[in-house]
Amino acid sequence: MEPVRSHYVPRTAAGRLAVGAFLGLFAFTQPPLVFWLANRTDPWIAGVPFLYAYLFVIYVGLIGILLWARGKNL
Predict the structure, then answer these.
(1) How far apart are CA 48 and CA 72, in angstroms?
(2) Across the chain, which distance is largest between two alpha carbons, in Å?
(3) How deeply is 22 buried, as exposed, middle or buried, from its count of CB atoms within 10 A (0-12, 13-18, 19+)?
(4) What is the rounded CA–CA span in Å between residue 64 and residue 70?
(5) Is the peptide bond before 32 cis (omega within 30 degrees of 0)?
(6) Residue 49, beta-bridge partner list
(7) Which of 26, 45, 58, 64 could be disulfide-bonded to 53 (CB atoms 3.0-4.6 Å)?
(8) Phi first, then psi: what are they for 23, rounded to 5°?
(9) From CA 42, how far away is CA 48, in angstroms rounded?
(10) Contact, 37 vs 43, CB < 8 A?
């Protein structure tokens, strides 16, 4: 009988890369990193404060990682 493997643990190198990249990028949206790097309103970028532009770029990157993982059927 096969041992039951956890579905939380990635089984492929691409899966480990996706999880690592997602968690690493997600860390930049959480305190204290976001406070150290992006806790300011100036300069304005495309009509929005820097903090919002920073978070938008990070969240688009996170969605990109999820779409890449979905494309790889991970």
Answers:
(1) 34
(2) 61
(3) middle
(4) 10
(5) yes
(6) 44
(7) 45
(8) -65, -40
(9) 9
(10) no
Q: Give 56-61's long-range contacts (Cβ < 8 A, gap of 24+).
A: 58/25, 58/28, 58/29, 59/29, 61/25
Rg (CA), the chain: 17
Unique residue bearing structure tokens 């495309």: 46
Nearest Cα residue to 23 out of 56, 66, 68: 66
Global confidence as pTM: 0.86
